Sequence to fold (1240 residues):
Amino acid sequence: MERSFTKEVELLKLGAGEVFHGEGILAVTKALLQSGVSYVGGYQGAPISHLMDVLTDAQDILGDLGVHFEPGGSEAAAAAMLGASINYPMRGAVTWKSTVGTNVASDALSNLASAGVLGGTLIVLGEDYGEGASIIQERTHAFAMKSQMWLLDPRPNLPTIVKLVEHGFELSEVSNTPVMLELRIRACHVYGSFTTSENKAPALSRKRLIEQPQFDPSRICLPPATYAQEKHKIDVRLPAAIDYVREHRLNEVFEGDLEDIGIIMQGGMYNTVLRSLAQLGLADAFGDARIPLYVLNVTYPLIPDEISRFCAGKRAVLVVEEGQPEYLEQAINAGLRKADLNTKVYGKDVLPMAGEYTGEVVLRGTGNFLAEVAPQGVDLAAVADVLARVAAAKRRAGEILGDGVPTRPPGFCVGCPERPVFSAMKIAQKELGQFHMSSDIGCHTFSTLPPFNIGNTVLGYGLGLASATGLQGAFKQRVVTVMGDGGLWHNGLNSGIVPAVFNNNDGVLVVMDNGYTSATGAQHIPSSGSNARGEASAMPIQAALKGVGVKWMRTIRTYNVDHMVKTFREAMTTSEKGLKVIVATGECMLAVQRRLRPLNQEKRAAGKRVVQTRFGVDDDICNGDHSCIRLSGCPTLTIKPNPDPLRDDPVAHVNNDCVGCGVCGEVAHAAILCPSFYRAEIVHNPSALDLWRERLRGRIIGFLQGLRRAKAQVA
Amino acid sequence: MTAAQPVCVLIGALGGEGGGVLASWITQAAQAQGLPVQSTSIPGVAQRTGATTYYLEIYPRPASELAGKQPVFALFPNPGTVDIVVASELLEAARAMERGFVTPDRTTLIGSTHRVYAVVEKSVPADGRFDGSMAHAAAAELCRRAILLDFAELAHDNRTSLNAVLLGAVAGTGILPIDEAGFEAAIRAFGKAQEANIRGFRAGAAAVRAPRAPTDAALPGDAKRPSPRLPAAQGLIDTCANAYPPEVSEIVPEAVARLVDFQDRRYAQSYLRRLDRIVQAERDAQGEAFQFHLSREVARQLAVWMSFEDVIRVADLKTRPDRLARVRQEVGVAPDQPLTLTEFLKPGVEEWCGLLPAFLGRPLFGIAVRRGWLERFNVSLRLRTSGVIGFTILFLLARLRFWRRRSMRFKDEQRAVEAWLDKLCRAVPLDYRLAMEVAELARLRKGYGETRRRGVDKFDRIVETLVSPGLAAGNANRASAAAEAMRTVREAAMADADDAAFDRLLGGLAATAFEPSAPVPRAAE
Fold:
């Protein structure tokens, strides 16, 4: 795994009345243990990876409590894990990145929600929306509505988040319904504190066994039970949930003196709204606002009588609801109509319909709302002045900075083993012509960004090969697919490779075998060699491919660019039909460095001989055409001012972060770029032989150089 | 409402720069002093590359004085409320301003002026660097206080990391309700590299308290490096000291030194004769009015062109004593520490034919081109120039200088140079802009192998389709149309647009340029 979480594990051990200081997602992890979960699962992905990573490192705590932790093969598998709570009063929690993970999980979730649960089930969702997200922009809310699951959206501070986790289990049990808890990216990473309570050993667990399997036909998702379940959701579970939310005041009302208006918001929006009000002079730093606020820590179901009570006597309310469509605003409007209240509802008319509700967006939206409703006792000129000053600074910066500051899209890390595969493809393209490439999800998706710009579609995790099937035979060239090892095990083997072999598809598949799900923090997968608990596994990708009947298969070390180019060319042009698979092997360089760096430091400190490799560019041979950079994009392969007094274009330069993977030299070689690159092997703690050889060489080379100098002086 | 508001700090960093540790030092320092604090982050998609941001808020009074009340901290920086923006690099400072987080009434901007180039900047074939002066200009106007210093250099000088120096800078502003002892305690509590981090912290704080003038200063070793002045060159330089207009005279010594070093005194003299033609042509066309812009440009391009990088030149540059010293410094080895150097050379048909005399090289090269063998016979050489054998091979190759004048490559380059100068001389009296464009065109001829072939090919085709027709009738209008079209096409050629797009653009421009009424099409984006 990416790093050790030993320090964070200590936080999970805190007892009653102690103070936890840490990240939001770790607070959730602690809250799960405090709630007495029996089992935890999930599938890694930002921003919730840490929940799983820390539990991976917390085997002793889990063992003491009897909690079973098992990373799922996919989100669907993780969701299906919750089936344990259908028949047994066991609390369970799973986590993943949403909405993509929820999409994958939705088959299991629909069945789970229909059957209903006895034990509390909580689905912790990292709502990957807005700045820093890595996926398509959608909201999870629709899943809650369509399957009748409850959706919690707590105010983003640790005490509230923890409280909602604990209530979430109760709510789930009271209403026999799975509960989702959504946390946005910044909330997952928020550092704060809360007062802990003792971890609770689960009632049923690895330590306290279930005595008798339960058979209950009404829990099985098969007609006629499904008809009854559908009715049960509405007749029993929904009212029970509404009662619980109301009774335990999970939603919060904060009074204010401007009584004829109000703001209704998702819990996750609370801090942003408060800051905007403070900036406009309508709130203090402690949440004391002049406008009454109704905060929905539960965004599904809504509590109709709470809404009408809040809106009664108000001429206008603002709904701050991130994402689209505006489900809450519509529901609130409908609720007010039914309650025969004439409160005007503002929302997506003063705020943008789509996109993240950042501080700036909410500030402007709140300002617009105030300008529209003009509440008595609010200095509208002052509000307008704040907005104008903020806009002016941004406008002026734009004027001075011109066309826009260059963006910094993510790319492959220093020494990444996947980079040379795309360098090879770009080199091969010069000869083979452009081909269509179906990309997948993983670090390798960065091939679609500069400088490679290879990859035409991204359809979902593990779906690269499946998304190339419609193009079978549609090009003269073979269609290329790139899939990561993570995607392969997640579902690509089933959804892509097996049917491709079965249907004799004639495509080329490159599998990136870097050993981990690297993009999510280097979690283990079947081909890593061991599972999360460190127990050995013998499940190489090649064996799986062979097992499902792949005939044409080559395993290539990625750093050998020349070889990769040749193999790729062969795959594209061979007369052999059927799926051709290149397994591009190279361990994630971050993992390699994490292992090697301390080892080498230790050896160096102990006076042992260590050879350090790095690359460099001769700046007087480099012409500054930067074609090497366009075939690499390595962060350490950069530019510097040209030392040539007669030239201005910057020259290539390798900086000190180089780990010596050698791709720049290989690429310069394979693409026949230029002779500027050199490899330097530096010997630390040299042996006597090293030193003797160095001196001898130095003397001979020095002698030759002396000849040259003497000649030049007389010329 | 009450006056006290949280102090807000936004940190913009690059993946792997320790922005997270910087944020956690501040958070821990605040927490240790009992101040309510919150931080959050957007780690960036890759977590390793790309821009990352951290955002912190600290309430300036200890929790114990707040009677149980909790501040509501924001997760987003609101423009207009940010007290400190820390940017670990100049582009990130510019970005924070572009996004509106820096406002004159409130924000202190701490930005390191060093550059870590974005992919889009460094992959441009010529020079795609963001103009840093714009960031300085914006900071001067938009900040309450702008602290733009090369903190990376400061970190380097103090053998510490950038984030420790930036923490010192934050402390040095005195804006946060935490004293320097508090920050140092946080560094010590963090544990790793304590002494180096404390050293960096103090250097950063001192730099902010007594700031030096903001610098764009280049990193050490980035200065221009003139060619060696051999005795033969010095004599020649002295004799032509006053022969040129001052604008040109600045270039000539380096050009002469370079060409004597490249070949010999006679070669440098031929350079001067060639330059004379252009200077004379420009004088005739009242070049003073243009401050001998053209002659200056030609003086540069001509010297660069004439010192083309053939196998002999590359071998020579790779075996010089100062090269070895430079490499040792760049990779950071001690003077007597063993170092193995491996060169990646792959000379092919073009290079080998280039070395042969023209009567042999040309027919062989012709065959290779016709049969598509250009990249067939490249010899992979991984020469160890730190070893005796590898060094000797390159050293002997470099000694082929005496042979160079007979080589095909030399003859080809001389012919192309003459043809270029002819075009220049004809263009000057017709249209000065066209002459400038033709001079600039020489920049396309750079690189090695395929890159160079494509550049030369583009050069030839622009000459053929625009320059020659533009000069054909001796008509100033045609020349002017050609100049206009060339500006567009040269930019496209430099931008390494794919060949098909370049062909289309060039074809379109050639078709319309010489028709009096037709407008000149713009470059395809």
